[in-house]
Specification:
Helix 1 (3-18) runs parallel beside helix 8 and helix 2 crosses helix 10. The protein has 208 residues and is mainly alpha-helical. 84% of the residues lie in helices and 0% in strands.
């Protein structure tokens, strides 16, 4: 693959990665609740989900899933329901406003696995991620000259850049953590995050 082609692809991927979406909200939610470790675990789950979906698209499995209406619709509704569930969790936290003991809870192994699972499931059950791979990757692949390894390189580029952006987001959150820790600010952010996640879930469910 020519470097000029890959450079054009990188530009598009950066613009896609920087656009706020469910992944950003899930990391924000877990960073606020579990600190740097919570955000890192959620980001790692998202990275793995991205890598799995990218691999499926690059290896041709994504086309099978996208063309199977029952499978695609099931994935769509599960993803919408899960995003709404995470949103309601954040909204419940904002309503209660009780944030005592969150740091200790965030260090437990059970909490850690839950944060990883939230990141992974929110990504892997979002069919829009798979559709993104299926719509963008073919534009930069020539069946006559490119190989499966080229397709995997493009797919994993999305996962790596996505993880890099989430790390930047977590760094910013960590830097202003003292301000974010104020009860009024935290409740506001939980409310915004929860509303956004519910909104993303509703948009996914209503999308034709």
């Amino acid at each position: 693959m020519a470097w000029s082609v890959y450079g054009s692809y990188l530009l598009i991927v950066v613009l896609i990665v920087l656009a706020p979406g469910p992944d950003t909200m899930v990391v924000l939610k877990n960073s606020l609740a579990g600190g740097w470790r919570g955000g890192l675990l959620a980001s790692s789950g998202i990275f793995v989900g991205n890598a799995v979906q990218g691999s499926a698209a690059a290896l041709g499995l994504g086309v099978v899933i996208a063309r199977s209406q029952p499978v695609f619709l099931t994935l769509k509704w599960v993803g919408a329901a899960y995003l709404a569930f995470l949103g309601f969790q954040a909204l419940r936290g904002a309503w209660r406003g009780d944030y005592t003991g969150l740091d200790d809870a965030g260090r437990s192994r059970a909490k850690g696995f839950r944060r990883f699972r939230e990141g992974f499931l929110s990504n892997i059950t979002n069919p829009k991620v798979l559709v993104l791979y299926l719509s963008v990757l073919p534009q930069f692949l020539d069946p006559a000259t490119t190989s499966t390894w080229d397709a995997l390189l493009l797919a994993y580029t999305v996962a790596v850049l996505g993880m890099a952006w989430l790390l930047v987001l977590m760094f910013f959150i960590h830097r202003v953590r003292a301000w974010l820790g104020k009860r009024k600010v935290r409740r506001t952010l939980d409310g915004v995050t929860g509303t956004a996640l519910v909104g993303f879930g509703a948009a996914l469910a209503l999308e034709g």
